[in-house]
């Protein structure tokens, strides 16, 4: 799930990423702000739910993927869409 909160005093949006993955020990987000080299670690909550909050600029779009346990790439089914990537698959699309 992706929850967007647009800030009234700044041209930014606070985005809360939430994903539930059974048997996952670690989930990271890659690709935000076009940075595929620096993973953003998500916090593990009860019941296998992982959460992360990021502040991103308004009027932008971002491609990203979740990396589960360092090997399994996943898209967010609740995102704004998908965009084709160079590996023949798709990335999650976030539009702010």
Account of the 3D structure:
By secondary structure, this protein is mainly β. Helix content is 0%, strand content 54%. The chain has no helices and ten strands. The protein has strands at 2-6, 12-20, 27-30, 40-41, 43-44, 49-57, 61-68, 72-74, 81-84, 90-95. Strands 3, 4, 7, 8, 9 and 10 form a six-stranded antiparallel beta sheet that branches. A four-stranded antiparallel beta sheet has the order 1-2-6-5, with no helix packed on it. Strand 5 (43-44) and strand 6 form a beta hairpin. The radius of gyration is 13 Å and the shape is globular. The model has no long low-confidence stretch (mean pLDDT 94).
Write the layout of secondary structure elements.
Blueprint: E1 2-6, E2 12-20, E3 27-30, E4 40-41, E5 43-44, E6 49-57, E7 61-68, E8 72-74, E9 81-84, E10 90-95
Antiparallel strand pairs: 1-2, 2-6, 3-4, 3-7, 5-6, 7-8, 7-10, 9-10
Question: Which key phrases capture this entry?
Answer:
96 residues, mainly beta, 6-stranded antiparallel sheet, 4-stranded antiparallel sheet
Alpha carbon gap, first and last residue: 15 Å
Uncertain parts: none
Amount of beta strand: over 45%
Put simply, the count of helices is 0
Oligomer: single chain
How much is the average pLDDT?
94
Main sheet overview: 6 strands, antiparallel
| Helix and strand pattern | EEEEEEEEEE
- Report helical residue fraction: under 10%
* CA radius of gyration: 13 Å
Judged by helices, strands and strand pairing, the structural class is mainly beta
| Tally of strands | 10
Shape: globular
């Amino acid at each position: 799930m992706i929850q967007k909160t647009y800030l009234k005093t700044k041209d930014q949006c606070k985005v809360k990423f939430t994903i539930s993955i059974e048997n996952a020990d670690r989930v990271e987000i890659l690709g935000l702000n076009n940075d595929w080299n620096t993973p953003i670690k998500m916090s593990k909550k009860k019941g296998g739910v992982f959460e992360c909050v990021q502040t991103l600029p308004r009027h932008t779009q971002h491609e990203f993927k979740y990396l589960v346990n360092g090997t399994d790439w996943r898209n967010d089914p609740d995102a704004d869409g998908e965009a084709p990537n160079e590996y023949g698959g798709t990335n999650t699309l976030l539009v702010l």
